[in-house]
Design brief:
By secondary structure, this protein is mainly beta. It has strands at 2-12, 17-28, 34-47, 50-59, 75-82.
Length: 94
């Protein structure tokens, strides 16, 4: 069997800018014992609802079954988050 655990520690530098450290470990029953990932990232709040992030995993691994989006893969990652809330749809109410 296999188990994947990963996490991220995030620090708010100021209202618009965050930095983070991320790490993960794939535990396996095989001889290798497991594989790890480690990386750094930064996020910028473009406006009230839009956040842009970039990260780089210095060490990483691919595991398509347990990590299909490749969060633990070695290399660059780019992320875009948009927050939808009821204020966004105010124009629909009469």
């Amino acid at each position: 069997g296999a188990f994947l655990g990963d996490g991220r520690l995030k620090w708010e530098v100021n209202r618009r800018f965050d930095v983070d450290v991320r790490a993960g470990w794939l535990f396996t029953d095989g001889r290798d014992g497991g594989r790890g990932s480690f990386g750094l990232g930064a996020s910028y709040l473009v406006n009230r609802n839009l956040m842009l992030g970039i990260g780089y995993n210095i060490v990483g691994f691919r595991e398509d079954d347990l990590d299909p989006k490749g969060y633990n893969a070695r290399g660059f990652q780019i992320g875009l988050q948009y927050k939808f809330d009821e204020d966004l749809f105010q124009w629909l109410t009469p």
